[in-house]
Amino acid sequence: MGTSMHTTADGTVARKETYDLIASNKVEGTSVYDRAGERIGEVHNFMVDKVSGQAAYAVISFGGFLGIGEDYFPLPWNQLSYDTSVGGYVVDIDRNRLDGAPRYARDEATDTWRGSVDDYWARPVLI
Amino acid sequence: MGTSMHTTADGTVARKETYDLIASNKVEGTSVYDRAGERIGEVHNFMVDKVSGQAAYAVISFGGFLGIGEDYFPLPWNQLSYDTSVGGYVVDIDRNRLDGAPRYARDEATDTWRGSVDDYWARPVLI
């Protein structure tokens, strides 16, 4: 694992690798924004492959502002980009597509949602 | 992403993928055992690459039984194996090597420990 150096905006030199890492419990609670910069919710938790340690889904929770309380929707991890300027994750997906995504109630087993989530996000976008 | 089927010990067929995933907040707090089956502590949290979502280190916390309270030691993620029979992670490392591993006090920045942790675990084992 090499150490990569880079120069930050304020001219200081930092080890890039430091900024690449985030503590799991800090991901939980991080804000998630849509492509318009509107906050759509926060990361409730994320699902990790036990063996490889690879994150597979970020589970987004959102409150009452859409009129839906306590709902969670899992997004494939690769749909999220970390944006240091907002200190959160940005999801570059059309709002209608997000709103139609499968969601589930608190503490539902992975079993119950994984199939539909994979199907939904593998489906081509209809415009 | 294919669905892999397997038969469990009690004869039921399950989708293997379900058991591959664990929620991030469930990893936190999971017990960690040494190769002798002795509990050495628990996962405090784990450090994830923000972009790729790949877990890099599991940060193990352990209490007073070694006489060291509130200490954390980061282990490269690939040193941990999940063992369903104990419901926790097993670290197949000699106890002396574990005891000599770098540790840090609560809430220390990744900066301060990453170099020494990488150096320690990259070093060949001296017997």
Automatic annotation (TrEMBL), chains A, B:
Domain of life: Bacteria
Gene3D superfamilies: PRC-barrel domain (2.30.30.240)
A Pfam family this chain is assigned to: PRC
InterPro entries per the UniProt record, alphabetical: PRC-brl_dom, PRC_barrel-like_sf
Residues of the PRC-barrel domain: 22-94
Protein name: PRC-barrel domain-containing protein
